[in-house]
Structures are given as C-alpha cells and as structure tokens.
Design brief:
The longest helix has 23 residues. Helix 1 crosses helix 9 and helix 6 crosses helix 7. The model has no long low-confidence stretch (mean pLDDT 94). The protein has 225 residues and is of the alpha/beta class. It is 51% helix and 14% strand. The strands form two sheets. Strands 2-3-1-4-7 form a five-stranded parallel sheet. It has a two-stranded antiparallel sheet with strand order 5-6. It has nine helices and seven strands, in the order E-H-E-H-H-H-E-H-E-H-E-E-H-H-E-H. The protein binds adenosine-5'-diphosphate and zinc ion. Zinc ion (ZN) binds next to loops.
C-alpha cells in the first residue's frame, strides 16, 4: 500500500516514472493531465471548460480539478494506493488532498521531486512530436523518426502538441515556478519530500525512486505497528 506524489516541472519525466511505478508496485498511475485530455477528447462539460486553459499553458481552476480528482480517487482501484502525477499542483490542491486523506484516516507515504534545470526542460518539451493518428511519441534529439516529420508506424505527418509550442512551453514553466514550486516547502515541512536528480537517465532515476519508495514503505509499516 503506497500513496505517492510525483512532483516536478513539465518535462521532468513525471509521467514516465509514474507509469514505471505503476508497473512495479501494482498501484494505478493517476495523471491529472491525462484525465483532462480524456475529458477534452470526449467533449465533456469539464473538457470544454478546461481546454482553453490547457491550450494556453495555464492551470485549470482548482475547483474543476478537485471535482475530477475526487471522482477518480473514489474508484475502487485506488484502495491499494496510487502514484499521483500532475496533482496536486497548487497549495490549495495539496491542502484539499490532505483534508481528504485525513477524513479517511490515511496519509501520503512520499513526495518525489524530480529536479531538472530549466534549459533541459525547454529542450525536452520543444523537441517532442506526436503522431495524431496512432499516438506514437518521438523526440527530435533522443528518439527521431526514421523520416523527418513522418510516423514510423503509420506514415502520418507528426505534429507538436498545442501546449508544446514554444510560447506555451515558456508559460507552463512560468506557471509552474509561481504556483507549483511552493509545494516543495509545503511537503518539506511535512517531512515527505525526497529530491531526485532527473537528469541522470531514465533507468537511474527509476532506481533512485525505487530506493525512496522502499524506505518510505518500511517507515509506513513501522508506524502502523
Ligand atoms: P505537464 O506536467 O507536462 O505540464 P500535464 O499533462 O500534467 O503536463 O498537464 C497538462 C495541462 O493540464 C496543464 O498545463 C494544465 O493546464 C492542466 N492541468 C493538469 N493537472 C492540473 C492540475 N492539477 N491543476 C490545474 N491544471 C492542471
Ligand atoms: Zn502513427
């Protein structure tokens, strides 16, 4: 049983790591960005309200996010714990999560912060290309398609996600610094924060996270006895 939060700027690799945690620990990876994009794709009321914020790289208002996450966290697969990715993203969201957990007699086990320099974030985010047809993901530097701008799998022309256009990327990083960076102090004060250098390579980052999660789960087991 583990409740983990992955914290880090856009491009820090939260999604990759959270999905690796899902596979290794058998707890669901809950990504607020993926949930939002699913609402947009399904054209739900929430999706229609959230889309303009997402396209600009601004945060979706807290009350919309809190309703969406409350619904997701109420589903039975979260009983065994979860790895949160992209939520909480403001102090108000973190406080709401805290109240919810308190009400259930639960708490978080660890908050993992993927520390990444800004230049690296810009490079990672602006080089990403996706296939609108089959959702394959490429990167101009690290995983280029065989033919420039064309999907290897289905020959469709690759595109840049709306929120990965350069202006929007800069806005997302600014919004992160203003609204999400304060969470570091918030979780540090609760003694939950673990920092991992996100530039040492995907596998080594995962090994570091494994170590942190193992330590945290031993601590939780001890606290329960
Ligand atoms: P990234 O972390 O790379 O910015 P995400 O896929 O997590 O990407 O989020 C994409 C967009 O969805 C964000 O730019 C924001 O508009 C919105 N979003 C996701 N999670 C939240 C959240 N917890 N609070 C507010 N907005 C959010
Ligand atoms: Zn494709």
């Amino acid at each position: 049983m583990m409740r983990i939060v992955l914290l880090g700027p856009p491009g820090s690799g939260k999604g990759t790591q959270a999905s690796a945690i899902q596979d290794r620990r058998h707890i669901p990876h809950l990504a607020s960005g993926d949930l939002l994009r699913a609402h947009v794709a399904d054209n739900t009321g929430l999706g229609r309200r959230a889309k303009p914020y997402m396209d600009r790289g601004d945060l979706v208002p807290d009350e919309l996010i809190l309703d969406m996450m409350a619904e997701r966290l109420a589903q039975p697969d979260t009983q065994r714990g979860y790895a949160l990715d992209g939520f909480p993203r403001t102090v108000a969201q973190a406080e709401a999560l805290h109240r919810r957990l308190l009400g259930l007699g639960q708490r978080l086990d660890a908050v993992i912060y993927l520390r990444t320099p800004e230049a690296e974030l810009l490079r990672r985010l602006s080089g990403r290309r996706i296939c609108p047809n089959c959702n394959a993901i490429y990167h101009q530097d690290t995983m280029p398609p065989k033919r420039e701008g064309i999907c290897d799998r289905c020959d469709s022309p690759l595109v840049q996600r709306e929120d990965e256009q350069p202006d929007v990327v800069r806005n997302r990083l600014r919004v992160y610094a203003e609204q999400t960076d304060p969470l570091l102090d918030y979780y540090r004060a609760q003694d939950l924060l673990h920092e991992v250098d996100a530039t040492i390579g995907v596998d080594r980052v995962l090994a570091e996270i494994d170590r942190v999660v193992d330590t945290a789960s031993k601590q939780t087991a001890k606290d329960q006895t």
